Amino acid sequence: MVVMEGWKSFLIDAYKLSPALRERLDAENINPHELKTIEQLSRIPVLKKEQLPLLQKHELPFGKMITKKTNELARIFMSPGPIYDPQGDEQDEWGFSEALQAAGFTRDDIVQNTFSYHLSPAGFMFDSALRQIGATVIPAGPGNRELQVQLMNDLQVTGYVGTPSFLHLLLQYADEKRLHVAVKKAFFTAEKLTESMREQFEQRGIRVFEGYGTADCGCIAFEDRKGPGLKISSRAIVQLCDPITGVPLDEEGEIVVTIFDRTYPLVRFGTGDVSRWVEGYKGERIVGVLGRVGTSVKVKGMFVHEQQLKQVMTEVGCPIFQAVVTKENDRDQLTIYIEKELDEEAKQKINNVIRVTPTFVCVHRVNEEERCLVDRRKW
């Protein structure tokens, strides 16, 4: 893992090995050897996450962004978009061990990992980080609450990684079945942890921490209880930028990340998430994710891309629709309003593409004055 002081040597190496990064910098007449300060990184235009599907489609599978041959990678994932995500050969490739150690996870823990191991990288992100620490991992994946609670009870699981809403669901089921759950620590990401849920977990003796990352970048920031908000990962440079100009701001802005990943060197990568600096901690701590910019919305930990949704809705014969994201009882809900009924095959096709299960509501007329993908959650 590269330390902050090594950012320039990292950038020079990435320039040499990543054809796409070299083209980006050459197009702006930027010589990485001439950059003297981190602030000068802002000369490099922001690469938006929403650009990745088109860039990758033009030059499969990674848009010439990686520094290795495809057959030299440990794993390849597919995130919604579609976006292909490469995994190099470092054990903790996405850098979450730092966050998990700050949350108190140790080699003595038995940890239930409820993130998916199928196509998307989240399951392996935390599996590899936990193994780096030395913890025992149960690769549970999402869903199947009965089996999950049985595992927790039979194996006396001490740690949990996943979304807060799913742990809440498991604990409710365990209470109903009068099963003992020994979980004492939990790490959440991919979904906002509300204060009410935090209080409920801690009342049960579960010490909870949250972090922030993406499928592309891995760990970006995490809670460490040594200061307010989320601490920036040692493997990242974070800027909060104007989403249009890419100019760094002292106020609320888009999270733009440079990740010290020698396999997949993302430089000035616009995540589409919005945050602001914790007062007095500029460059060191963010308050968390406040919302989204652009045309993508994160629902239940997965990005739903407006263009991809439009395409599949047109394919199933329903080009006029509106998808609305809300939060009910601390859980994300996706409702798609349509003007005609869809059969189960069409609904399943939509589910398979966006990887989130929506509720379909048939209405007389869809509101076409708003965007077709709307986020109405109160952040």
TrEMBL record:
Residues 132-257 form the AMP-dependent synthetase/ligase domain. It comes from the Bacteria. Keywords: Ligase. InterPro entries: AMP-dep_synth/lig_dom, ANL_N_sf. Its EC number is 6.2.1.30. It holds the Pfam family AMP-binding. One of its GO terms (molecular function) is phenylacetate-CoA ligase activity. This is Phenylacetate-CoA ligase.
